[in-house]
């Protein structure tokens, strides 16, 4: 007898059901968090829920559909939970086709927050909204989101480092970093122990 393959809507409903009591009503306003901190809050809850409902439990034929729909669901939830002052950018992102990824949406919103701070420091900067294409270019520039302390953070793990140097996302970089440190230490040691050059006295006649 052939096994029943659940519809994608059934899969999404069963997977997202535990979200309701924990983060469905969460918003940046109610939590009183900065954009990057609000994003980290949501991401940690999503990762926690994924441990209880791993995608490996679903039928192979539905895994791709589940991943794509969950990605859009997370992007929608992040955008809809932002403060009202980000409404114009939220609408631009939601009306962009294809819909930007979750991390691109974060970079766009956080880039606008950083720009607002620059406007307060320099009133000569135009306060008007930036086209979404320019915001997407900023998202790809690697500037990255910032924590409440102003330090760059990785949009993947939330640590104080940029996504391109994240050891969790790129574990192969950890070995390269250690090699560079050891090489730098050896170079410094050789520089400290090398003897001073002997002056050339051949031009001096006796």
Automatic annotation (TrEMBL):
It comes from Actinidia rufa. It comes from the Eukaryota. PANTHER family: GAG_PRE-INTEGRS DOMAIN-CONTAINING PROTEIN (PTHR34222), RETROVIRUS-RELATED POL POLYPROTEIN FROM TRANSPOSON TNT 1-94 (PTHR34222:SF79). Residues 176-186 have a biased composition (Basic residues). This is Uncharacterized protein. Residues 174-206 are annotated as: Disordered.
């Amino acid at each position: 007898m052939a096994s029943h393959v659940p519809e994608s809507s059934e899969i999404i409903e069963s997977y997202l059901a535990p979200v309701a009591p924990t983060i469905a009503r969460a918003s940046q306003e109610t939590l009183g968090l900065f954009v990057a901190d609000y994003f980290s809050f949501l991401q940690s809850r999503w990762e926690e829920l994924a441990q209880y409902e791993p995608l490996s439990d679903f039928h192979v034929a539905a895994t791709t559909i589940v991943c794509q729909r969950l990605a859009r669901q997370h992007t929608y939830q992040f955008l809809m939970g932002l403060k009202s002052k980000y409404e114009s950018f939220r609408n631009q992102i939601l009306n962009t086709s294809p819909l930007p990824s979750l991390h691109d949406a974060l970079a766009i919103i956080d880039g606008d927050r950083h720009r607002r701070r620059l406007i307060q420091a320099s009133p000569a900067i135009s306060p008007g909204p930036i086209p979404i294409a320019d915001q997407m270019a900023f998202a790809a520039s690697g500037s990255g989101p910032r924590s409440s302390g102003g330090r760059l953070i990785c949009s993947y793990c939330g640590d104080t480092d940029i996504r391109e140097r994240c050891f969790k996302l790129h574990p192969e970089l950890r070995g390269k970093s250690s090699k560079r440190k050891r090489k730098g230490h050896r170079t410094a040691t050789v520089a400290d122990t090398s003897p001073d050059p002997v002056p050339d006295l051949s031009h001096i006649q006796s």
